[in-house]
Structure prediction request, 217 residues.
Amino acid sequence: MRRRKTRSLTLLTAFTGALVLGSSLLTAGVAGAHGSMGDPVSRVYNCYLEGPESPDSAACKAAVAASGSWVFYDWNEVNQPNANGRHREIIPDGQLCSAGRSKYRGLDLPRADWEATPMPTGGEYTFQYLAAVPHRGYFELYVTRDGYDPTRPLRWSDLELFHRVDNPPLVNRSYQIRATLPEGKTGRHLIYSIWQRVLPDSGEAFYTCSDVVFGGR
Prediction:
């Protein structure tokens, strides 16, 4: 696997720099952007770390060609503003990684060479979700079923829920989600996260695709 420019030990530094950059570059329409999965790294955040103007990996190059480089500066805005738990209703199969938004269509490209985070085959794992703007709500974590083919468009039926938590602890601007990994997973898979804010605050939800390799640690 290709080594990312920014490794996990420097993730917080990169995240802080992204927030500073965002305050000066992002448009007013993106000012409400809120977060993305940092570990295992999401597709959108990894392409941001690689550098949207000249990414390293073939997958990020293809995603930039499909969506434009500017999209990846908005790495914390892959959302649906009024989801209210209706994820399967409002996001079509094949568009899960983009949250059904054409702006992020490059994230839906079915490829087997997206940057993948090595993960153990079982036990406890602390997922780290970068919170540009923290909000109360719940997180759901899904993993692809056995037989997952990354070269085919991702469907809701490809996913199985393995963890749900309300308001996990926030440490250094990152939600710490301690979860038991699903048993029996090996090789390349995808972990899908949903961060659902709750009413009366907001019905907004955020979505991430993180490519992983079980047994890589």
